[in-house]
């Protein structure tokens, strides 16, 4: 810990009675420090006298804009933490409501579904009212809904204001609902068929309206073939990742019989690999690697994680399979998102950069939810009374999605490199 001295302090270093070592270090070399103010720290004084302590998490060298960006990143991390909390206890929550195994996939899928459905509309609304204001309002809404989920079931119901839903939100919700409901009711149920058809109609109507809108949520006319390839690759990779994370945690808890705390401890490699992936992405970009190459490289790790899960033995050691799944798969997650965002941003005008980020985030979250719904259908169809067979079927689907994404992304990287050389 670096404690800067006031001007007038003697150079060099010495120890005070608290055991801290005072170093005459320029404050601009600090990243984070505790800034303590001392009085009487003058030449000849044996020990400084503390007259006030001002603890500052951020030194003065960090600008207000940088502080806001850091706060924003911390808040985004908490959003992902709330998603992680839906994976581990989903079995306990489902059992308390009498839900079947296939129904518990709806909990994390609902998160991705609503996030993906509202992302585009929120991105456009942020352009109108301001992203900072909307960010604060969104966190207030998250807090309110988080608190409401802890209320007892016997509490009186309060009428909530019904907001008019956009066609895009309705279409995405209904289409996704059909896929996530089908594992329980089957495709022969009118509920699934009706919601699927209505959802498709609304999605098609949404794109038809967007082409004629003066201020569209998605600039449909400005999205070219290259942007569609990027979105397809992101959707394939992240849909397989949703399958990987949900069924791997359920395998550890339901099949191997580990506790939730043990399952949580097994996820320790994730943040470490995520940090390494972030640094690796920045390093590769600085060294001249193209975003399509990084995107193709990221799809490899989505595929590797699902292959390990689909081929592992039930009672293997943690270090032989699950550890490597969580040590390698985050490379795909934390390299594909920035690469896709960079690619899509370069394909859109400068005034549409916010739309590019929203579009990538929409595809990321929505594809996870849709992938879980399709995996649930596969699980029910191939299980035949064996839970493990159902899990393997879902992982094979993940291999197919990520493998196809790897092929497409590799072809796109080759095409992009050839086009760049031609120009």
Automatic annotation (TrEMBL):
Listed name of the protein: Uncharacterized protein
Keywords of this entry: Membrane, Transmembrane, Transmembrane helix
Its membrane topology: Multi-pass membrane protein
Subcellular location: Membrane
PANTHER family: LOW AFFINITY AMMONIUM TRANSPORTER, MAJOR FACILITATOR SUPERFAMILY MULTIDRUG TRANSPORTER MFSC
Major subcellular location class: membrane
Source organism per UniProt: Penicillium chermesinum
GO terms under cellular component: membrane
Keyword Transmembrane: yes
Transmembrane domains' residue ranges: 134-167, 187-207, 228-249, 261-285, 292-311, 323-344, 356-382, 394-415
Domain of life: Eukaryota
Keyword Signal in record: no
């Amino acid at each position: 810990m670096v404690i800067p001295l006031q001007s007038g302090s003697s150079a060099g270093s010495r120890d005070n009675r608290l055991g801290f070592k005072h170093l005459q270090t320029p404050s601009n070399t600090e990243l984070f420090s505790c800034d303590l103010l001392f009085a009487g720290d003058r030449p000849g004084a044996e020990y400084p006298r503390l007259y006030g302590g001002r603890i500052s998490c951020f030194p003065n060298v960090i600008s207000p804009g940088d502080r806001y960006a850091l706060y924003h990143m911390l808040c985004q991390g908490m959003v992902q933490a709330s998603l992680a909390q839906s994976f581990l206890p989903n079995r306990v929550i489902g059992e308390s409501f009498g839900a079947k195994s296939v129904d518990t996939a709806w909990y994390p899928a609902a998160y991705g579904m609503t996030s993906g459905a509202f992302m585009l509309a929120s991105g456009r609304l942020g352009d109108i009212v301001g992203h900072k204001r909307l960010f604060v309002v969104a966190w207030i809404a998250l807090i309110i809904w988080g608190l409401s989920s802890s209320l007892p079931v016997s509490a009186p119901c309060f009428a909530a204001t019904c907001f008019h839903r956009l066609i895009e939100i309705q279409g995405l919700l209904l289409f996704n609902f059909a896929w996530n409901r089908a594992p329980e009711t089957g495709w022969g149920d009118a509920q699934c068929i009706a919601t699927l058809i209505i959802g498709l109609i609304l999605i098609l109507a949404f794109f038809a309206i967007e082409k004629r809108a003066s201020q569209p949520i998605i600039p449909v006319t400005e999205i070219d073939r290259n942007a569609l390839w990027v979105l397809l690759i992101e959707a394939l990779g992240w849909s397989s990742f949703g399958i990987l994370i949900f069924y791997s945690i359920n395998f550890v808890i339901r099949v191997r019989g580990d506790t939730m705390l043990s399952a949580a401890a097994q996820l320790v490699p994730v943040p470490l690999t995520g940090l390494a992936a972030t640094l690796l992405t920045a390093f590769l970009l600085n060294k001249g690697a193209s975003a399509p190459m990084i995107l193709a490289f990221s799809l490899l790790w989505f595929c590797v994680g699902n292959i390990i899960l689909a081929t592992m033995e039930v009672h293997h050691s943690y270090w032989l399979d699950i550890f490597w799944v969580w040590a390698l798969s985050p490379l795909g997650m934390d390299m594909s998102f920035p690469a896709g965002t960079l690619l899509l941003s370069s394909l859109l005008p400068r005034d549409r950069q916010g739309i590019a980020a929203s579009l990538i985030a929409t595809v990321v979250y929505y594809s996870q939810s849709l992938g879980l719904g399709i995996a649930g259908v596969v699980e029910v169809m191939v299980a035949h009374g064996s839970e493990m067979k159902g899990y393997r079927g879902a992982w094979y689907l993940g291999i197919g999605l990520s493998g196809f994404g790897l092929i497409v992304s590799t072809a796109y990287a080759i095409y992009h490199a050839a086009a760049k050389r031609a120009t």
